[in-house]
Amino acid sequence: MTKPAISVQSLTKTYDSGLIALDDINLDIAQGEIFALLGPNGAGKTTLISAICGIIRVSDGIIEICGHDHTKEYRIARGKIGLVPQELTTDAFETVWNTVSFSRGLFGKPKNPAFIEEILKDLSLWDKKDEQIRKLSGGMKRRVMIAKALSHEPEILFLDEPSAGVDVELRKSMWRQIRRLRDNGTTIILTTHYIEEAEEMADRIGIINKGKLILIEEKKTLMKKLGKKELILELYSKVTEIPTPLADYNLLLSENGKRLTFTYDPSKKNNGVAELLDHLKDSGIKCKDIDTRQSSLEDIFVTLVGQS
Amino acid sequence: MNFHGILSIYKFEMGRTMRTLGQSIASPVISTILYFIVFGSAIGSNIGDIDGVKYGAFIVPGLIMLTVLSQSIANASFGIYFPRFTGTIYEILSAPLSFVEITIGYVGAAATKAIIIGIIVLTTAGFFVPLEIQHPIWMAFFLVITCVTFSLLGFIIGIWADGFEKLQLIPLLIITPLTFLGGSFYSISMLPPFWQSVSMFNPVVYLISGFRWSFYESSDVSLATSVTMILVFLSLCIGIIAWIFKTGYRLRN
């Protein structure tokens, strides 16, 4: 059986101040998947990544990278990981070529100019290879960070808020790049504030809040399990109050009495839509338009974080 | 052993020096020339020989030590502090590098730079006074081990410091006074007996004494004592660095 790319067991991180940044985290990430870690600010996303990458010491627990303990076999374990940190921390006076080559060397890999050239070309950085990093735009710097993380051919890539401060075009180009990496077998773990990003990219979603992993689920299952659907009815005439026979449907009256919204579970066989339409007809309420809306991952996220 | 990793850090740090080559070389050369003009010619011409060595020549080993001590500390402390300050340290900490390898990379580069500058100062001195090195191998030994030891000290300071001010604090308040009072410009035997005894608590005395012995075979303390003291100091620095990496002090907290 293939070992998980990352296996975290009972991971705890308590800072000297007493702050519990990670509280009994258990997580397995399969090889070749895209895993999105969501959470509000200060939830513990970056701390978890830092612990896995060996940047901070953990208070308790076990971390294995492709079956290798991250402290006892740190050389093998760390060699498999590439990290794109949240902050654009680069050596401002170095050239793009030098800084990417430096990263490759740090991970014990011999020089490979052809490979570095390929990465820079893939990330549209080739014509900037001799530029000092301080002269690049924010988006370009973000690409340099990705190039550095990829320079030693990692099997696992951590992207900590990869889209922060990046324009829409570059974000989509990065998504394409990430998919290409996954297609080549790289395991991707991304943290993001952009729920749209997780919805677009991830195979599985983990939601962390106050140092605890409150949910890990396949994205599709999650959407199915927790996703609600809304039936939006635009009315011909204004309705001042919801008629008594419709009280059980918990309808929301809005737009100055000209819109009714019914929230239902689409996975249920008898979800109430047909009965509601019959009751509306019986009550003499006519609709001029009907629309439906599937709740987004963002709605689910807000609900879960709010509950925890 | 991650040789590529060590070499990457070493080359990266040396590259930083190469970008400021003029400043790196011009500064110690100008300082040395000024010391020779002030102490060697203006004041030195009125001072007699010390242990049979002309004063201008006598101060050469002390001047080299003065420069390499401060350069070793400055290079190594800045080398490790700067990535901590900018945040690029994440890359070093997440790489498959042991603490020994990280230390070799940073300290090796800092010591190399200090050795090169020491040789430049020595060469510059050669334009002012006739150079005489009785024991070149011992001279090289003292130069190298001093640069390595004080680069290790600089590395510790760079990890300990949490601001640029602290980075300057120890070199300015401790190292520079110790160097000036360590016999750079005089022989300890010229001091009154009480201050001679006090000077024996200054570790720099042993470095300068041993280094001067390699030039002129005259020293304030025996060669064996000098070698022992520098090795003790070297071991102490290695011990502190081992503790830093073991505990993660200011790095992996």
Architecture overview:
- The complex is a heterodimer of chains A (308) and B (253).
- Chain A is α/β, with parallel strands linked by helices.
- Chain A has 2 domains: 6-224, Rossmann fold, CATH 3.40.50.300; 227-307, Alpha-Beta Plaits, CATH 3.30.70.
- Chain A has 10 helices and 14 strands.
- Chain A has a 6-stranded mixed sheet, sandwiched between helices. In chain A, strands 2-1-4-5 form a 4-stranded antiparallel sheet. Chain A has a 4-stranded antiparallel sheet with strand order 12-13-11-14, with no helix packed on it.
- In chain A, strand 1 and strand 2 (20-29) form a beta hairpin.
- The longest helix of chain A has 16 residues, at 168-183.
- The model of chain A has no long low-confidence stretch (mean pLDDT 86).
- By secondary structure, chain B is an all-alpha fold.
- Chain B has one domain (3-247).
- The mean pLDDT of chain B is 87.
- Chain A binds chain B through residues 15-16, 50, 53-57, 74-79, 81, 83, 85, 87, 89-94, 98, 101-110, 148, and chain B through 2-5, 7-9, 11-12, 15-16, 19, 86-88, 90-97, 248, 252-253.
